[in-house]
Write a structure and sequence with these properties.
588 residues, 37% helix
Amino acid sequence: MVNFKEDEKLNILNHSCAHLMAQAIKHLYPNALFWVGPVIAEGFYYDVDLGDEVIHESDLERIEKEMKKLSKDGKRIYREEISKSDALERFKNDPYKIDLISRMDEENTIISCYTQGDFTDLCRGPHVESVKEIKHFKLIKHSGAYWKGNSENKMLQRIYGVCFYTEEELLQHLEILQEAKERDHRKLGKELNIFMTSDLIGKGLPIYLPNGYIIWEELEKYIKNKEKKLGYKHVLTPPLGNVQLYKTSGHWEHYKENMFPKMEVEGEEFVLRPMNCPHHMMVYDNQIHSYKDLPIRIGEIARDCRFEASGALKGIERVRTFCQNDAHLFVTREQIESEFASVVNLILEVYKELGIKDYHFELSLRDPEDKVKYYKDDDMWNDAENTLRKVLNDINIPYLEKIGEAAFYGPKLDVQVRPAVGNEYTLSTCQLDFCLPMKFDLHYIAQDGSKKTPVVLHRAVFGSLDRFIAYYLEETKGAFPMWLSPVQLNVIPVNNEYHLEYAKSIFGNLKNGAFRVELDDREEKLGYKMRESVMKKIPYSIIIGQKEVDNKTISYRKYGSEDTITVSYDEFVSMIQKEIEEKKLLHK
């Protein structure tokens, strides 16, 4: 998807279009006042104060119509540079512009305005030469936005749009937006009864419904089984801790703004945990360890809580409470390379089995010039970063280096996925940490009898289960592979009077075989039931009619196919068991 902010020509065009939209709004709503109208990656927006008037979805078309009228008028766009005093005088009746101007430096700031016809606004520019160049645009949506992003300020109305140089480019982009809408995990999550939210419970606190929890359980079993085969031991730790725990780890100093406020109980201060590593440090410290015990791999599907601004929340992709597929590997320095390579291979194996193909690796390093964010130990950082580089080079993994993206305690490897729609984001991560084991004074007895400090690898293959489910919903459009699908099979009798008894026996046998199966015995037409089965994205619909009753067979139709295939019951069960065992992907 195009990034309007990074494309220089589209940036200029979209900023000019934002002004055209503001001019149109001013014509339709003469009392309108404007805050800012920047270009963003997704296009542009303008924040508007309309007093008591409220813009509705139907009003966007009216604004577009006025914009087209102004564009055809073809007014040139003029730039003018004025002094601060002149600017304060010119915009004296506009409190939003006065606020902007008042915060500008008196001597060094060039204050520029852009005028087109009867509309003038403050702007750095640049703009296109004439409004007649602004032809191919679309207003996408509107929402509320607090002035300056502060919830204590007035709520303004924000209108979003996009603009292109050609009609073809606009139509292509609108198709992508429609595809994004169809794939949006929030839409799919509601339609397929995966999760719900409630303002009464709280923003960013999703509830997984039965269908969603089946997906959750299957993913948890899947990754835990893989980890157990690799020698991981799983634990269960509490979702809060004493503030002193996070002061010891350094999270209180470096991560406090992302944590919920502390709670005082019986003289102790507690906080909801934002991550699990401090708890796992305590698990390690519970026993004396020998070099023969290492590596020790501690895993947990762990509940964490982080404060996210309400405007950043998004379904189950960005939430205030989530479960990490977390693990901490306590290793000797000599074991770093082999264990790090093992984590990378596990990530690659999972991605292959789940059909995740569009991704790349990023090595996140510290910014040596930042003396505040990062733990102060140059030798540790150089050692850690060079070690990760060596491992990635040895196993021939291409990667990008990202300066300033490391955790405060060490460098990390992030796996960036490119979803079917939207911008890329981090799914999996592995971090190398010399710092926390020292902070918690962790040791093991070396071969020579001395005490040595272990090194820790922090890793999360799924990242959080919440984000992974959101990602996979959008990748598959909710058509999960058989092993993950909440409902795997739907048994549909053609006519209840003649076919229900045999359908019930098939249903019972499949249920006893531990398949997730439903029986649709409603008095509805076959076509209606089949369409609903497709809408639910159930992998297999089993049709039971007279032919199946007479021959003791079943007919099935696979999701995404128009073909109906008739086989014996045993043949069908053997086929779907193999599909589940091999984690076969369902065709989209």
